[in-house]
Amino acid sequence: MQHAQSARVLVHSKVLPLMDAFLVHKRQHGTPVEKQLYQKMTREDFIFRLIEKRPIFFFSDVDSTRLRDGTEPSGSLWPRVGTEKEGRIKLTDYLSYDEMQISALIGISSEVMFINQGERKNKGNAKSGGFEKEGVYVGLVGCRFEKEGMMEYQHVLISDECNGEKGYGVGGVDGKEKDKLRIWGDFYEQRLKNGEVGLMDYKEAEGEYEGKTKKLRRYKTLSGDIYFNVEIFKKRLSITIETFLYEADLRAKEVKKMAYVHAVGLGMGAWQVTQDQEEWLLDVFAEAITQNPFDNISDINFSWWKENSCGGAKNGNKIRTASGREITIIFSKRNPAEKLSEKDRDKLLVCCYAWDSNSFPGNEYWCGLLDASGDPAAASCSTIPEMHNVYVNPCLSKEAILIIEPDKRLESSRKKKKQKKKKDLKGTVVVEKES
Predict the structure, then answer these.
(1) Tens of pLDDT along 14-49?
(2) Which residue ranges make up each domain of the chain?
(3) What pTM value is reported for the model?
(4) N or C terminus: which one in the chain shows less Cβ crowding within 10 Å?
């Protein structure tokens, strides 16, 4: 029961204004189906909806799916959810693609039991030893570029489809599409050349690239030139990584331990469009570490990454946090629940797994593809299919929503640092030791 009660939905504070703007947008510009659904919906209702209104599984570029009633309709129905042409998959019961873009920004976390080390091909085979019996598992979502023109593809990858008719750029046609992109432009802090908030179109991306800015990268694809907006990609992942590290830090603080963090790649594999994404994701980790006060994290183990440097820190090096603490960086081929070493045995193991924005925890796990990706592998080695499942765990409710507030934590840390250097009455500088 303790593990069930520990489950919580994680929402970064920066996502809250996005959610509010989304609800206003849908009330003003939505279809009749959307206007009816969102008319009186609160922010808390919306957050819980993002966890609750999901199919059992949802994967591949054709959106293979099984609904909660056990049926498996065509994946082609998903883009129609919430429109006047929606089919068997109704907005009242399931998420629209617009909602999936936001559900990708939230996470879910709980204490779990492990039954093996959690290697990719563990397939749920119980072992007698060599693994941690308990830990914390956090489900997070990377950028999904697998399906052209959907999800983060609309914000990060700039093709000739990103034009004024679809609301992109200075010449974007006014209407619901431009207003929707304005909301995301505001979230990603993007301004067009005329000073308006929005996302650039293809011609503007060409100009940025020819100007040799570091914001964009250009790639050849089967469909032509694609510009990859590195700045937006990093801002998108910074929400997810800050959420993960603050949750790890908080979990450790709650049990008066230091956290040993096991970090896997997010949005890699089938969702990935360039190997550079891994390097950029590590840049995001490094920035999160240096700019935030993680006082309860001792180690971050990057498992099965091809890159071997995080912010210049190699295996065994340390990175200093905003509060002055040092975190040891490790690159290894460690399995998630692998037994911690003797020197780390008193630490709290906090792992993340790559989830999806529109499935039950484990995703392919539910159709028997136990080693298809890290998601079903995580479900096969632990109790996340139960603990992270709103239909199994009654403790996952609106009351279980946790808002991650980095700004408040950072301000609190700054005040503590000032207090440690305050002067006594005689003018002597008193430097208090870390507790």
Answers:
(1) 999 999 999 999 999 999 999 999 999 999 999 999
(2) 13-100, 105-144+236-400, 153-231
(3) 0.93
(4) C
